[in-house]
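TL;DR need structure tokens for one chain.
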Amino acid sequence: MIFVDASALIVIITGEDEADRLADALGVDQERLCSALSLWETTAGLCRSYTFSVATARARVQQFLDVGRFRIVEIGEKEAEIATDAYAQFGKGRHAAALNMGDCFAYACAKSNRAKLLYIGDDFTKTDLA
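>> reply
TL;DR here they are.
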């Protein structure tokens, strides 16, 4: 089981340099997860960095989810608690990992679903995620 962070979704959808490596990692797991928050972040990132319209970004994200057979996990009380703990321990201004809100919720979703986390960058390597 793998939870895909918005950073990885953006790279794969846009075909950036590490897209093949991420797609290969994604291909290993049959159960692929994301959350409504990661979908929002992906859509916003595509609009901000790639000048997609909201409608185009939303359609590209949905197409990717459909083809990849993703399951959207809910964010509830448990995830909010884990995300708050992640902020306390690894948050921006508190720790070298410098997790922002989206990162804290990706961390929480991966933890609460006992899933690996697929991401870009080195922020999560500085946390307790395997």
